[in-house]
Amino acid sequence: MFHGDHVVYEELGDYFDGKNASFVLYSQNEDQYEIYNKEQSTKRVSPNSTYKIYSALIGLETNTIQPGQTAMTWDGTHYEYDEWNQDQTLETAMSYSVNWYFQEMDQRVQQETIQSYVNQLNYGNRNVSGADDPFWLESSLKISPIEQVEQLNAVFENKHAFDTEAIETVKNAMKMTEQTDRTLYGKTGTGIINDEAVNGWFIGFVETSEDTWFFATNIQDDEEAWGSEAAQATYAILEDKGIYKGGN
């Protein structure tokens, strides 16, 4: 249950072309949330590829991969996306959102250990039991936009006492663009059901010397809810708020 003490609810529907969407922004310095769509911001849905942030962190914490040694070998299976059809490092796998890399990570770590870390993180509904492969892709694991922001803040402020080098390695893999005085970190996610994009995510944070803003954007639609669309809306909102310009 969300109990933020300092919350401002906003009307940001114009950024989403009438689609069912939510946006959550948290200022670390001000300890304040800005939220669009109160009801949707607390609704749990599949994290899809945004979970890869935590898959990577768990992989590093368990020494399944190590900083500077994150390579995995492509097994020759042909995938729809050319970038997937090659060996990967954590940086390339995060950038191209390579499912097989993180599925291999999950298999190496094993479910019991994953469950232990998901419990420690108190990640969403903490349900990694899904028989579908993988559990984070329109399966059993669910999380809300507000919980996404809370997770990012907790992990990157190291409130769980994880290895600092592991956190920095994940952070570097999430880096998208950098400007003179601020850096944007993020991860998209798209849920596909019956060949339709129904669940689009973009989560991350903007770091400056003065503050860190954590954000989560989610779009729900019958056929056109892409992570890239959530990212474009986020860039526009962040720019209009003066937090980040030209994120795309």
What is the alpha-carbon Rg in Å?
17 Å
| C-alpha geometry | globular
- Mean model confidence by pLDDT: 94
Distance between the termini: 33 Å
> Helical residue percent?
25-40%
CATH fold field value: Beta-lactamase
Largest sheet: 8 strands, mixed
Structure description:
It is a single chain. The protein has 248 residues and is of the alpha+beta class. The protein has one domain: 3-Layer(aba) Sandwich (Beta-lactamase), CATH 3.40.710.10. 32% of the residues lie in helices and 23% in strands. Strands 1, 2, 3, 4, 5, 6, 7 and 8 form an eight-stranded mixed beta sheet that branches. α2 (52-61) packs across α4 (99-109) and α2 (52-61) packs antiparallel against α7. The longest helix has 14 residues, at 227-240. The model has no long low-confidence stretch (mean pLDDT 94).
